[in-house]
Amino acid sequence: MKELENLLPKSISFNSAFNDLKEECLNFFQSLQLQGKSPLTITEYARTISHFINFLEDYSGQKVRLKDIKNLGKISINSYLAFYKNPEKGSLLKDIKSNFHQQNYYFIKKTPRKILSEDKAFFSNKETIKLLDKLENFLGGEIKKGLEIEQSLKIKNIHFKIERLRRNGCIKVDKLKKEKSPRSVARNISVLRTFIEFLCKSNKWESHAIKKIESSKYTSRTDDKVFEEKDIIEFLNFIDPDTNNESIEESFLSWEHRRDLAILYFLYSSGLRVSEILQFKMENYPFKEYSKILGKGKKERYIIILEIVNKKIKNYLQSLSEIEKNLNLDKKDPLFIKYTNGSKKGLSSRDIQRTMKKLIQKFDGNYPIHSTPHSLRHSFASHILRGGTDIRAIQELLGHSSLTSTQIYTELNEKTLLNVYDKSHPHSEKEK
CA 289 from chain center: how many Å? Predict the structure, then answer.
């Protein structure tokens, strides 16, 4: 159905569903729109439901009709949840080549710090040097499956060569979690329950097996996602060419790196979500110290933007204009752009995730196990809380309806929020 295809990314398919079920899926996604859900939230709902329907087709051996959803039993739903939690459970990879095809790889560097003794001849071979050049160009900053690498480069026994490059640190494997976290399982159940309850209401079904499925319990953890204050400052200083006077990589002087640096400063200094950072246009810069944004669920809130953020954005825009002299920027263009082959467009959340991952890999200091752009938001909240900020102030700054189930949303005035930053944020202290 064209309406469904236009509403969602092309990567999400409902080919496993008959038209009656597709129609109900579309109605459900449109109802989420009317509730003010963000496009990202709707996409994640769609991804989960598509995954569920695809499983049911494989499970039953036929396309899924609306009545099939109605007649689902508890065993079928639990079978799906078990598959979702660990799709590879009980399966063994047959050989190195099969393993290579399924793994995700990303490029690190062409010259290892130390070549293993058994691989010295391999690295002195001209074919290996050519292979490294091809991999650097093909992978760039992206993560790709081994099968995709094999099909694109068409090099005999490439899986053996990739393995030798991997063990010498030229390429790394992006290891996928074999088992979903309790939080992911709980979210999956919640999405399915919301979807099926919508179907029950719109089709007047009296009951459904989903009501017999218990909600998955999980404990929210942030301790493995939060930088220590000194570590985040060291990390930012390391990747910042304005503060790192020891070992600056050439790539750190590019306008793209200046852009990425500005984003990371912005995330940590404000506690914004990545999706909120990406809403800004060129016309929004320079930012006022006290600015209003449209947050999750289309809720407006005020945030503090420190002067250091304006400085980093200024450096990025100056570098961009100096290097890309033929680029014309419009006030309605995204503030954070990518520019390739004469085409400009806004960054995606995935772009920022890749950047963070790449920079963390270059940093030799301490960092949390799960170092993502969102961990900067966690760090922001943790650090100002340690600095004495009231939990209600953090609730306001993060745009949460509540930080815990017992917290009452409290609106804070401009003066209070400014005092919060003056007393609590490391960057604010640095700028004094």
Answer: 27
Read off the pTM: 0.53
C-alpha 97/C-alpha 159 separation (Å) is: 6
Q: Does pLDDT of 410 surpass 50?
A: no
Question: Nearest-5° angle of CA 175, CA 177, CA 180?
Answer: 165
- Contacting residues for 386 by C-beta, under 8 A, at least 6 apart: 229
Interatomic CA distance for residues 360 and 371, integer angstroms: 7
- Tracing tokens 């949460």 back to the chain, one arrives at 400
Q: What is the pLDDT of residues 47-83, one digit of tens each?
A: 999 999 988 887 777 899 999 999 998 878 888 888 8
Catalytic residues: 273, 296, 374, 377, 400, 409
Cα–Cα distance list, 229 to 263, 277, 425 (Å): 18, 22, 10
Q: Which two tokens stand for residue 350?
A: 């995935």
- Give the model confidence (pLDDT) of 11-24 as tens digits: 788 999 999 999 99
Round to whole Å and give the CA distance between 373 and 377.
7
Strands 290-294 and 144-145: what pairing?
unpaired
Amino acid at the residue 374: H
User: What is the 3-state secondary structure of 76-135?
Assistant: HHHHHHHHHHCCCCCCCCCCHHHHHHHCEEEECCCCCCCCCHHHHHHHHCHHHHHHHHHH
